Structure formats: structure tokens, C-alpha cells
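Predict fold of Magnesium transporter; 409 aa.
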Amino acid sequence: MSAATVFVARLAGAGVFDPAGERIGKVRDVVAVPRADASPRVVGLVVESRASGRVFLSIGRVTSIGGGQLIASAVSDRRFRQRGGERLLLAEVLGRGVTLRDGTAATLEDLSISERGPGEWEVDELFLRKPKTGPFGKGPTTLAHWGDVQHEPGAEQGTEHLLASLDDLAAADAASALLDLPQQRMMEVAEDLPDERLADILEEMSEDRQIEILDSLEDDRAADVLDQMEPDDAADLIAQLPAERGETLLALMDPEEAEDVRMLLAFGADTAGGLMTTEPIILASDATVAEALAMVRRHEFAPALAAAVCVTLPPYEAPTGRFLGMVHFQRLLRYPPNERLGTLLDEQIEPVLVSDTAAEVTRRMASYNLVSVPVVDPARRLVGIVTIDDVLDHVLPADWRAQEEAKRG
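Predicted 3D structure, encoded as C-alpha cells:
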């Protein structure tokens, strides 16, 4: 073993490789078992694997730790399930309050684990922060051993380390990681996530889980999160709530966002109007290729939305003026920056009506190999766009996310 001691906060997100150098995944947590007469014994790591999700890696399989990465001889392909008595050091221990022998309160900000023998690891030193003594800065820090502090079972636990470990995950993976936490811990972390991040994560959960988390939030916070969701996802979620709370949240949302959601709620779930999002990229016919490329580069647009630009007459927010056509991203790359979009319209792409069935939308997208299709009203005003992910959500079984969550559980 190349390193005998390592702090666990530095392990979060560390790459895991096999002896041949092939990447296996990333470290998401450290699993330990408390002992009555000694510091907790480390039994393994939770590793995020692209192939199998969160899996367990026995500490005895780790052959090297160093340089921000681990080498392991083998990783199980079985989904990690926390057993009774096991503690997740990042998710459940870091951030907790403790009491030093002199009675001073402190917060456990990090801890080290040390190798005592081949495959035998245990918690070693605790990195603690005492309360600050002045109005500025942070409190002083100190090191202590596990037995030198009193651990209160009910002590509050901060979420900083866990939030940091979720930060670099894709929304679907972050949703999976959040659902792996104990119920109370999941709600604590959800409460501390930024509105935009929580919105992205909720969009990747089953409706039951979405409602469960939304019900745990105060109305004002829930409305803020709904503001950050895609309008079609927010509409789907509000449709599952009791009518009274749905109306309360809509009244608290940003008026423009609420207007989009109300419009979507008026359409049947099995229609183009019920599938679409109301926020496509819309430009005028005299806008240039350079302007269009600047729009599709913006990070807030999902790849499917950024695959094409809709061109309409004014106004340029849905419902727009008359829909003129679409220009696909690939075509934008073939023309000079000063070319006008009105000369580049794809005349083969016909929009669908808001009343068209989801089956018709699916057939249209499959027939023309589209990742998105515009949606217009009877006056040919653009009201939204259906993307491939909207269609996939519709054609998959209604409970497909719940089935995935059940597999993880």
C-alpha cells in the first residue's frame, strides 16, 4: 500500500482504477463499522461505477491510494446496500458536532483512516474545528483521536462534505446518490441543495419521490424549486399534487414561469401540448449564424434544445408570431457568421399541432430522425418544442424511474 494514512474528504470523487489502468469509477463514500473499545474499523468504499451504479469495494481489494486515485484488484458489480451497524463516513459522520474532553464543542470537519495491517484499516485522527472566538473568520482547528471526544448520537450533522461530493455528478447520478441516503439525511441534504440543483435532481426521480421531497419543503422554497424546473416537468409534478397545494405553489411561483406551467396543465398528457417544453431557442429571421451559435452555447439549454433554433415572426416568446421554420445546429456550422437564419430554414421539418397525439409526435420524430420537433397552435404560432427526452419519458413505462429506484434499493 503506497499510503498508510489518508483523509476521507480527499477521497470523495477520487478515481478508482484496476491494475491495468482501466477506470472503474469514483469514490463516493467510506464504509466503517463502530467498535465499543476502539475507533471504527473501515470495511470498504462505495464506488460509483458507470456500468453498475453504486457498488461496494472491500478495503482488502485496495492495493494503492495516492495522488488522488486508488488502484483496486476487483470491484463487485452488486449494488451497494448499507447493512445494519455500518456507517457512511462522508454521509453520516463528517459535519457532526462532538465534545472534547475539556467540554469544548467542536465540529468534525474531516478524519483520517490508517492502515494497521494488510487490509486492516481504521479511523485514526479527527480534524475538528472549534467555535470562532471573534466576529470574523473561522474558529481554530485541532486534531484528536476518536476516543478523545464524546460523540452524541443525536448531534446535528452539517451537509457541506456531502453537498460537495454531489456537486460533480450528473443530475441522474446525484438523484441516485441522494436516494441511497437514509430518509432523514436525504431530506436534510435536499433542504441544503441550491434551488437550481435540487430542481435538476428532482427531474430525474420518480413522481412519488418528487412529491415526498417537495412535501418536506416550505411552500415558498417549493415554489422557488419549481421555478427552476423545466416547465413541462414542473407541470407534471404539480399535476400530481392535491389541487389546493398545486394552486398555492402556482401563486407563489414567478408569474411568467407559472403562466407557462398553467398553459401546459391545460393540455392532455397524451398530446404534443402535454409533452412539450415552452422554452425553445427562438430567433428572428434576420438574426445571424453568429447570434444563433451564441445562443446554443449557453449552458442553461439542454443538448436536445440546443440542437436547433426556431425562427418566427415577432413576438419571440411562446406563443410567438407565425412560425417560419427551424435551423439545425449542424447547418449553422456550415455557413459564415454573418449569414441570415431566414435563408437556412429546413423546409422538410413540419411542426406538429398542440392537439396531435403523442403517438403522432413519436412517429414524426422517428420518421425524420429528429431530436426535437416544434409545436404550433392552429394559428401556426410556436408554443413549444418536444424533445427526444420528452418522447422517451412518454414511451417508457409510467413507473420506469420507480423501477430503477427499486433496483437500487
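The chain is about 35% helix and 25% strand.
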